[in-house]
């Protein structure tokens, strides 16, 4: 059985990523690779200003460098990164451990494993049980 405190792999919700680069800047291992370009969105109201927006071109994580600290997940203001329960992402070569956004996005659809937990909850401080 797997403890509920165990997490699997970092997954990406591509639609939520704004290419703000906070995750890449805060990563102590520098294992995130993000590339984007800027597009101009025309004003929606008369007299309004055009808006520029970042469009994600590449998002990859090199799991051979990642220490699974979760800082990237914590600093993301848009919930684009999360822990996936997926735990089978091994590769035959170190070079293949850099996973691109298509694979990272696929892990978000992985359902969590259901079943009894082997970790007991701490006792209730009031009742002692």
TrEMBL record:
GO cellular component, one term: membrane
An example Gene Ontology molecular-function term: metal ion binding
Domain 4Fe-4S ferredoxin-type, residue spans: 8-37, 57-86
Keywords per UniProt: 4Fe-4S, Cell membrane, Iron, Iron-sulfur, Membrane, Metal-binding, NAD, Quinone, Repeat, Translocase, Ubiquinone
Stretches the record annotates as Disordered: 106-129
UniProt-listed InterPro entries: 4Fe4S_Fe-S-bd, 4Fe4S_Fe_S_CS, NADH_quinone_OxRdtase_chainI
SUPFAM superfamilies assigned to the protein according to its UniProt record, in alphabetical order: 4Fe-4S ferredoxins (SSF54862)
Protein name: Unannotated protein
